């Protein structure tokens, strides 16, 4: 990468023409890709370690081959194809190296001449199938003298913002050098060099800012792999298409670079100096300095790139042909060849060099920290009266106190490394001491930036399990890189639990409607913290595996709408029976819920089944016919009685004799008096206005006056009065009295200081004093108690028919009560399951099944309450605007969001971040269950109350345990797939869309409580 000069020397003017730039680039690449054969022979045998063996072994083999007859030579070449160390896809070679040529087609590896045979492979086995595309660089930027790996690129246009290479076969806790290279070469013929980000695992490595098509950009880092695989990722930032030319991984000895840990990586400083070819700050000093020389493998056993520092007018070089002992510098293992030369000042007593911040690593802040490694060895055998001694100063201060340094003859040392902190330019000075007779020397140096790995990756077991699942089912989505981290790139369909002191764990996985086929993959069983697993609405086949019952944290499992077969494992059945697991297996034609016994019937069983299949429907049909006659007869009697009673109530003459109302009866004059002539209107709905009043004892009341234009007639008024007079529950609004004075109709009931739930969720007060998740759960539970009382405790049962947030009123302490009983219907007796009546209610809350069939049941209230629960969770209205002109029903909006697995976009932001994610899961699941079709699949209000109690207990206990907040993770949440499947069936009902998208009917619903301010 280009950067500002870091020494006083004026940089040479770079060539500006394409041909000139290409010539300069070619010189650079020739240095990387070709060494003089004579120098190879001179250096061979002096490199030490395994590289000696590797290099020395080449000459005998070549000589032997030359001496063989032509046939034997051919045979040798054929056999060599079989024994050459091919690199298995995604795995290291025999040296532990991974050498990737990005952008070439999948095929055999090839040897790289510049490294004497290191074999490079296609990147096809290191990226997901179909990720990115291959391209060759464009003339005039391609050249036959370029190393082959720089002639192609893989680019990642469109699709996921993050694309990753996965390097496998590593040692957990092992140290590795990772190197990535980028040569744009105008491969896309757009001549628009891009910028993008480079990541080491889940932590940012560098910003790749390409400024010229013919510049090479190389980045190196020393990392500690936390697992047996490691990932390098390219992230698109909206400034062009990410691409890559090459990627290398080299293992290091455990003792090398001890500053590198799992929590801290070393990034080789990437600042270009004027005379250097690359921006890699790992330098040696070779004479003549004007000849640009690069050392890497096999001279460096770890394939580090050492480049010549270049010519500095004030310096000269000293060299030796003798071997240099590097045993005392084993922590960094500098190759002997780079230590056989050194820089020293020509006429002076000091040697200075400096560096500037690396903008690619964003280390220009005051917190920037660097690791500086200085390599020294005396190359001249000094006479007794000669002394080379100098002080080492960093930014003018001695880094080793008052001690001066004297290099040892042909014995390499790394002077104690030092962490240099702070932004701006830094300078290193080697200053001869007063008693020194020789100037200072410097053989080599490296400069690293210290990068804290603040992002913690997903638990290793979870990450490997997810990779296995991705591979088995060939899932695309945005499943690139680490499943949970960074949070901005977390995989769709996951919910992760994060901790500041440990890895992320996967707690929910939603793969509903993901086109899964085949068996349930065993990798699911490796997700030890998984609580919620939704595999519904796919084409999974085979038996339900036993390992699902062994998953220790699993609380919800949805396998519905697949092609599974056989019995349910007995352990899963036990978990379902004891309540520790919610299990859904519906719509699997070949599943039988009979424990471990076989599902296949024998011939006798088949015959018995056939007889039963014929006889049972006949018997049931006969019973239903008889029951229908009896029910119709009883209903006719009840309806006649009801109509007679209602007619008598409408008669002023019989009003005084009626015992229907046991509450106080007000005259119209009394109402004018207690409301101060209807002075303060606190609400208005389809029935009319609601006014604030005060009784004689000062108690506030709400007075509901029927307007002359009201859509609610005498019958509805009398119905509400009758129902309020006979229901008594803490979660139902209490009737204090009524007025039927000539043509004036009114109800007087308790005043609710907290207003209605709709206003508290979406009105002005919702911003000033938002409801917490705990309070919302309490309000939902209160409301559910009220409806349960109507359905279960009233004799005969009552169906409210207009359950909505506007009809849930709140006290000053935010206790909730159900109100507005004008549309309530009565069952003739407690044994009836439904009644037939003209549909009524509020659009958006109205049960589609009730609307289309006119069959009203308690499950119609359950449907409406499900909408209320979704409002409580999201804060949205039943009709959610997605554009300026288009709205969708809240349930459809929630399902769309949940299919992305992101609860942060669903949970009402006004709640803040303090709510238990498990509690939110359960309430969302419950809300969608309440909307299932057909209505018999919905829970009862008793079931709803039980579920909400459990959710509230989870929230209450959150402060006493380690629960996850809604935003702890990518915060993914899922609806059950069965709900989505069943609701999809509901879409076939006529006018479903009209019901769910319609605006609230009539005038604004009645608001009882203080008027919005």
Automatic annotation (TrEMBL):
Pfam entry (one): PK_Tyr_Ser-Thr
Catalytically driven reaction(s): L-threonyl-[protein] + ATP = O-phospho-L-threonyl-[protein] + ADP + H(+); L-seryl-[protein] + ATP = O-phospho-L-seryl-[protein] + ADP + H(+)
EC number of this enzyme: 2.7.11.1
Keyword annotations of the record: ATP-binding, Kinase, Leucine-rich repeat, Membrane, Nucleotide-binding, Phosphoprotein, Receptor, Repeat, Serine/threonine-protein kinase, Signal, Transferase, Transmembrane, Transmembrane helix
Compositionally biased residues, Basic and acidic residues: 36-46
Phosphoprotein found in the keyword field: yes
GO cellular component: plasma membrane
Stored SUPFAM superfamilies: L domain-like, Protein kinase-like (PK-like)
GO molecular function, one term: ATP binding
Principal localisation: membrane
Subcellular localization, as worded in the UniProt entry: Cell membrane
Topology versus the membrane: Single-pass membrane protein
Binding site for ATP: 704
Domain Protein kinase, residue spans: 676-952
Segments for region (Disordered): 1-54
Name this protein carries in UniProt: non-specific serine/threonine protein kinase
Organism: Triticum turgidum subsp. durum (Durum wheat)
């Amino acid at each position: 990468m280009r950067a500002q000069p870091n020494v006083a020397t004026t940089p040479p003017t770079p060539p500006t023409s394409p041909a000139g730039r290409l010539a300069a680039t070619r010189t650079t690449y020739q240095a990387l890709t070709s060494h003089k054969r004579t120098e190879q022979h001179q250096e061979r045998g002096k490199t030490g370690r395994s590289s000696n063996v590797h290099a020395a072994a080449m000459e005998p083999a070549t000589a032997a081959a030359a001496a063989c007859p032509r046939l034997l030579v051919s045979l040798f070449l054929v056999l060599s194809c079989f024994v050459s160390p091919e690199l298995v896809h995604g795995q290291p070679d025999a040296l532990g190296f991974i050498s990737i040529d990005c952008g070439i087609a999948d095929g055999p590896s090839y040897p790289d001449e510049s490294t004497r045979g290191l074999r490079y492979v296609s990147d096809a086995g290191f990226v997901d199938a179909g990720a990115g595309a291959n391209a060759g660089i464009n003339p005039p930027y391609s050249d036959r003298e370029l190393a082959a790996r720089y002639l192609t690129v893989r680019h990642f246009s469109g699709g996921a913002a993050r694309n990753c290479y996965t390097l496998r076969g590593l040692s957990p806790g092992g140290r590795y050098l990772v190197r990535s290279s980028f040569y744009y070469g105008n491969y896309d013929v757009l001549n628009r060099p891009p910028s993008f980000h480079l990541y080491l695992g889940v932590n940012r490595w560098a910003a790749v800012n390409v400024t010229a098509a013919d510049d090479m950009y190389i980045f190196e880092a020393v990392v500690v792999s936390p697992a047996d695989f490691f990932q390098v990722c390219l992230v698109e930032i909206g400034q062009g298409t990410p691409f890559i030319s090459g990627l290398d991984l080299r293992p290091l000895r455990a003792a090398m670079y001890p500053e590198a840990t799992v929590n801290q990586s070393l990034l080789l400083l990437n600042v270009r100096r004027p005379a250097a070819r690359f921006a890699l700050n790992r330098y040696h000093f070779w004479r003549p300095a004007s000849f640009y020389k690069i050392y890497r493998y096999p001279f460096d056993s770890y394939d580090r790139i050492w480049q010549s520092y270049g010519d500095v007018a004030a310096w000269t070089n000293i060299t030796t042909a003798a071997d240099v002992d590097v045993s005392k510098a084993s922590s960094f293992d500098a190759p002997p060849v780079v230590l056989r030369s050194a820089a020293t000042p020509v006429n002076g007593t000091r040697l200075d060099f400096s560096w500037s911040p690396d903008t690619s690593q964003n280390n220009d802040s005051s917190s920037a920290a660097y690791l500086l490694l200085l390599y020294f060895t005396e190359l001249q055998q000094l006479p007794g009266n000669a002394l080379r001694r100098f002080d080492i100063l960093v930014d003018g201060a001695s880094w080793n106190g008052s001690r001066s340094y004297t290099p040892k003859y042909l014995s390499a040392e790394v002077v104690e490394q030092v962490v240099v902190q702070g932004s701006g330019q830094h300078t290193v000075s080697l200053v001869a001491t007063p008693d020194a007779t020789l100037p200072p020397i410097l053989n080599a140096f490296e400069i690293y930036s210290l990068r804290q790995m603040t992002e913690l990756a997903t638990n290793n077991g979870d990450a490997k399990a997810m990779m296995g699942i991705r591979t088995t089912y060939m899932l695309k989505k945005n499943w690139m890189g680490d499943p949970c981290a960074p949070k901005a790139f977390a995989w769709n369909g996951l919910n992760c639990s994060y901790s500041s002191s440990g890895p992320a764990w996967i707690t929910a996985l939603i793969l509903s409607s993901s086109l899964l086929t085949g068996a349930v993959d065993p990798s699911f069983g490796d997700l030890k913290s998984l609580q919620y697993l939704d595999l519904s609405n796919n084409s999974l086949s085979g038996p339900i595996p036993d390992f699902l019952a062994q998953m220790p944290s699993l609380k919800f499992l949805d396998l519905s709408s697949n092609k599974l077969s056989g019995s349910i494992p007995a352990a899963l059945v036990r978990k379902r029976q004891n309540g520790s697991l919610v299990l859904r297996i519906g719509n699997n034609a070949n599943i039988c819920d009979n424990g471990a016994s076989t599902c296949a019937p024998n011939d006798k069983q088949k015959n018995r089944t056939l007889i039963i299949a014929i006889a049972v429907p006949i018997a049931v049909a006969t019973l239903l016919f008889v029951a229908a006659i009896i029910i119709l007869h009883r209903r006719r009697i009840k309806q006649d009685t009801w109509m007679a009673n209602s007619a008598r109530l409408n008669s002023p003459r019989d009003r005084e004799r009626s015992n229907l109302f046991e509450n106080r009866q007000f005259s119209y004059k009394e109402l004018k008096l207690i409301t101060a002539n209807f002075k303060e209107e606190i609400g208005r709905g389809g029935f009319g206005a609601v006014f604030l009043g005060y009784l004689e004892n000062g108690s506030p009341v709400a007075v509901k006056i029927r307007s002359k234009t009201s859509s609610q007639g005498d019958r509805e008024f009398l119905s509400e009065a009758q129902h309020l007079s006979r229901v008594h529950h803490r979660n139902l609004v209490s009737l204090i009295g009524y007025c039927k004075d000539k043509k004036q109709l009114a109800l007087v009931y308790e005043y609710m200081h907290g207003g209605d739930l709709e206003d508290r969720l979406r009105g002005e007060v919702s911003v000033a004093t938002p409801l917490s998740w705990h309070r919302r759960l309490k309000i939902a539970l209160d409301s559910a108690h009220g409806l349960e009382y109507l359905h279960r405790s009233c004799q005969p049962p009552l169906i409210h028919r207009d359950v909505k947030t506007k009809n849930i009123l709140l006290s000053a302490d935010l206790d909730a009560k159900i109100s507005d009983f004008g549309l309530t219907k009565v069952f003739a007796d407690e044994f009836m399951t439904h009644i037939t009546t003209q549909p009524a209610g509020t659009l958006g809350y109205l049960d589609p099944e009730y609307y289309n069939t006119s069959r009203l049941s308690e499950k119609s209230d359950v449907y409406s309450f499900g909408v209320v629960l979704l409002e409580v969770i999201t804060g949205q209205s039943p009709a959610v605007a997605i554009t300026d002109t288009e709205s969708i029903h809240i349930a459809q909006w929630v399902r769309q969001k949940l299919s992305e697995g992101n609860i942060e976009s669903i949970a009402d932001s006004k709640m803040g971040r303090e709510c238990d994610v498990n509690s939110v899961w359960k309430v969302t699941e419950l809300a969608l269950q309440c909307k299932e079709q057909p209505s018999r699949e919905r829970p009862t209000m008793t079931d709803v109350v039980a579920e909400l109690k459990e959710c509230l207990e989870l929230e209450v206990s959150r402060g006493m345990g380690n629960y996850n907040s809604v935003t702890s993770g990518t915060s993914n949440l899922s609806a059950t797939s069965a709900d989505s499947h069943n609701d999809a069936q509901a879409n076939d009902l006529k006018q479903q869309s009209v019901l769910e998208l319609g605006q609230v009917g009539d005038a604004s619903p009645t608001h009882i409580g203080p008027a919005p301010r």
